[in-house]
Batch of 2 targets.
Target 1
Amino acid sequence: MESKRNTSSFRDPSGYVFIEDNKVKRVVNLIYFEQYKALTDSGFYKNLFDKKYLIPHQEVSKTDSEICIEASKIPFISYPYEWSFLQYKHAALLTLKIQKLCLENNFTLKDASAFNITFHEGKPIFIDTLSFDFYQENNPWLAYKQFIMHFLGPLLLTKYFGQDHLKTLSQNLEGISLQKLSQLLPFKSYFSPTILTNIHLLAKYDKKYESDKKTVNNNLSKASQIKLLDGLYDFISNLSVNEKTEWDHYYNQINYNEAAYQFKKEVVKDWFLSIKGKTLIDIGGNDGTFSRELKDVAELVIVADVDPNAVEQNYKQVLKNKEKTILPIVADVLNPSANYGFNNEERFSFIDRVKDSNLDGCLALAVIHHITLSGNIPFSLSAQFFSKMAPNLLIEFPTRVDSWVQFLLDSKREFKNHFDFYNEENFEKEYGVYFEIVDKQKNGERILYSLKRRQH
């Protein structure tokens, strides 16, 4: 029986997560027994499961010193810096909903980290089972400051300065400090009562009392806390960001004719059925148009794109159509998220998480020319990247006469000749090191390659 402690699970003395025989288990330490028993016996855990707010678990063993529970496994954990604006908002709102429900049942969230939430079956879900504690009368919400640093701060920075700020937590795992937030936000933000109260005044208060924690006013009634939560909920619900991006509404501006478009959809379906696939990642999948063709036969479709607006459009479709199998995430092939945190093992890289998911297939449509000609990535290196994604790859290769390729080559100006290597023959040669060609179909000025990873 193989077990391995999760390297990101070390901060909470209440317990820790470990993986055993590909199952996600959690040890509950003696220090948390009282809370765990109350959460279980009161039916509060079950209430959270029923509402799909918290990942379900079941108890598998118990001794005098520890309890072991097994949680439902989520096939791919996404992080806050891989969410679109609407996903980030929904994660924030779920945290507030859970805290309000806690207060109504005499519990409280002891932390409000954005890393406690991931996306599963089309919606955000809370994954830290031991984040709950007893509510103490008139005590303020101890995780309030963390909520502001992890959720409200990044959302406001994004509203005012653009969607790059959704990635704030990749560089600040603890969240962005209140003082920094207050300094960064524009002067007009002072005219918003919510921002004034929850950031600017809180930052001043926090700085004033940081050296003397005992001076902080601990007298805040439950009714006042619920009012605070409701105010934050309404404010965040109404937040929006207006930023046009390069690949926004991409499929309205592409150079496919209808026949080529439909042919590509058919090839995608036929390929996935031929590999007997259940799980897939679509790299550069934009709003999920092509991988959505597989939603009825696949158990999991991760659609990764660099453009947060395209990911947002995909997420809206997931919500509208209740598509539980599709997971939209923001990911940049040219700079995929790295290993972060203590020992570089607290938050795992995009590539490592994809590898651990053991996916059946990878789609890469209309992306290789951007990787090669915009990103200056040689075929040998992109082939290496795709070989890490899945054993089966369906990749689209636009030939040199394709209008997009011509546009990208022309943009190189005097360096255009440096990209003479961009042709079908070199592509097949370099990709042949990592893959064997199973099938090859021409679609206008583009070629669809079905590739199988070589055993090295």
Target 2
Amino acid sequence: MAFILPALPYAYDALEPFIDTTTMQIHHGKHHQAYVDNLNKAIAGTANEGKSLEELVKAAGSISPAVRNNGGGHWNHTFFWESLTNKKLDKLPGHIAGGINLIFGSFDAFKEKFANAAMTRFGSGWAWLIVTSDGKLEVTSTPNQDNPLMDVAEHKGTPLLGVDVWEHAYYLKYQNKRADYLAAFWNIINWEKVDQRYAEAK
């Protein structure tokens, strides 16, 4: 079966004022939809047709650039939407809070490292919090629509949190002020989902 665009787990205006409604409509309905459509075209009639999205992503080094880029775009955006929420928490859930404090020393130190990975990613790409194969938390970044699940990733692991730093993710509201977008991002992270992913990955 062909891949389809997943519905958002919230309304387009749910993340206001941190991510504006128009950006969400275009980012999800246009950009993400294009990745899905182009992925379906790229795999049609090939040996990759019928494979799961995760199978395609993990084999990025041995598939065509069209499948790698659009498969990564589809996976990354689906993951990104699920990482966001308008629900506020008084404190981080215990598992991820403990892991962050253990590896980074404090939440503020983690925020600084994560923001730096996002700010120093040249051009388009993503910053990630991952669990490595030995169970440790690590901050990394990837270019374009690559992600840490890919066999071509410089730092491999299971993603727990990712932020899109392609300009289409923030330009309508923040223009070229990536730092302002990243500062707003901390207000809409779905830490319950991150904690769940961490528990499953350990």
